[in-house]
């Protein structure tokens, strides 16, 4: 039932049957009559309005592309591509005209600061489509405010580029993420704390590069207190976050010893910070370091260790204090660990949980979609995940 020549009505009938819905119950959920459903499925009535197709897809728990045909990209992915195009255009603007700086008397550092705070909240709640819509306006405001060269807006400018880079990393837009992180670093020059803030996102962008470890360590030790007991929670959060980034880079390179040593340093700092904080939008604390240890184990191919540590961490109350984005991303990583130990059922449960608590993490993050496809393609994959992957157009 996946051929592009199959009429949309037959797709609806097939997917409804797979969901074990009668025509009447399906009609009730749509707010339509049973006769309407019957006519759609027999091809007597066509589905032409995009809003109606989305409603039908939502009830069937499938991607709209499944109804429209495999050669048609999902509406969500099309909208994301359009949003990224606008973000790229905004990042390419410099607030300049042929006659010089653009007048920007309407720009306000306070307004920009509030907009940046809202953007971070949107990101941490894993509402990526909404953030994509916000960023072009936010970045335009950044460009205008930078044109004033007042210096008062520096923190807001750095944070705006940081949250942009964080989202673009999620969306696998590596070149744009690099550009945003580089803009953050440039805006932070001369301020060690802001440089460390920007370096956190730079570390995410460059995690696959061995050179990034030295960059992270240089930024970390520049702001590190001589004695952790003398450091502020803000300083320790930044320094510890940078050590975590460096450790994950080491783990990806297969260097277990260096990764462990850096995480031990980060643990010492995390103990002084405690859990439940979000200094400089890092959420740094003991639980974050523990999650980093799990990710490092996965990168090193030690699924057994990762699973054991994960099952201990999620029993702690502090796990629930983390931003939703962080928890969702971790659960996607842990699905890989369960695959490493051959537990396909629990890997599937982890991914379905992510879709339940933070659907955008699965539906808009390419790395997560790849994990869903990998789990669904296993011979012993449960029907719940194969149906889910089919709905997303992944298998």
TrEMBL record:
Q: Can you give the residue ranges of the HTH cro/C1-type domain?
A: 12-67
Q: Which residues form the signal peptide?
A: none
CDD domains, alphabetized = HTH_XRE
Q: Which GO terms describe its molecular function?
A: DNA binding
State a single Pfam family of this protein.
Answer: HTH_31
Extract the InterPro entries matched here. Cro/C1-type_HTH, Lambda_DNA-bd_dom_sf
Note the superkingdom of the native organism. Answer: Bacteria
The name under which this protein is listed is XRE family transcriptional regulator
């Amino acid at each position: 039932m996946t051929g592009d020549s199959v009429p949309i009505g037959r797709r609806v009938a097939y997917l409804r049957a797979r969901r074990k819905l009668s025509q009447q119950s399906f009609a009730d959920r749509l707010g339509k009559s049973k006769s309407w459903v019957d006519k759609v499925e027999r091809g007597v009535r066509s589905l032409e309005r995009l809003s109606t197709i989305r409603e039908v897809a939502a009830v069937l728990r499938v991607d709209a592309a499944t109804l429209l045909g495999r050669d048609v990209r999902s509406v969500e992915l099309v909208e994301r591509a359009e949003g990224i195009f606008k973000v790229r255009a905004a990042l390419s603007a410099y607030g300049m005209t042929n006659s010089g700086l653009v007048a920007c008397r309407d720009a306000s550092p306070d307004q920009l600061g509030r907009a940046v705070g809202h953007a971070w909240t949107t990101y941490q709640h894993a509402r990526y489509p909404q953030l994509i819509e916000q960023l072009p306006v936010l970045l335009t405001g950044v460009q205008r405010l930078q044109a004033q060269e007042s210096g008062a807006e520096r923190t807001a400018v750095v944070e705006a580029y940081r949250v942009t880079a964080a989202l673009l990393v999620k969306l696998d837009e590596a070149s744009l993420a690099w550009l945003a992180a580089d803009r953050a670093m440039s805006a932070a020059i001369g301020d060690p704390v802001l440089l460390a803030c920007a370096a956190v996102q730079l570390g995410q962008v460059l995690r696959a590069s061995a050179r990034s470890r030295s960059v992270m360590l240089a930024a970390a030790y520049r702001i590190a207190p001589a004695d952790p007991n003398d450091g502020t929670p803000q300083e320790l959060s930044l320094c510890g976050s940078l050590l975590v980034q460096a450790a994950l880079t080491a783990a990806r390179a297969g260097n277990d010893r260096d990764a462990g040593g850096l995480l031990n340093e980060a643990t010492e700092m995390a103990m002084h910070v405690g859990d439940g904080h979000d200094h400089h939008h890092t959420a740094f604390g003991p639980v974050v370091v523990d999650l980093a240890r799990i990710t490092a184990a996965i990168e090193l191919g030690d699924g057994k260790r990762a699973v054991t540590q994960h099952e201990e961490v999620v029993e702690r109350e502090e796990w629930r204090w983390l931003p939703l984005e962080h928890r969702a991303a971790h659960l996607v990583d842990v699905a890989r660990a369960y695959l490493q130990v051959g537990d396909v059922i629990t890997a599937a449960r982890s991914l379905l949980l992510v879709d339940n608590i933070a659907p955008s993490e699965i539906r808009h993050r390419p790395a997560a979609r790849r994990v869903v496809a990998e789990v669904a393609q296993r011979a012993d994959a449960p029907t719940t995940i194969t149906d889910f992957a089919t709905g997303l157009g992944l298998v």
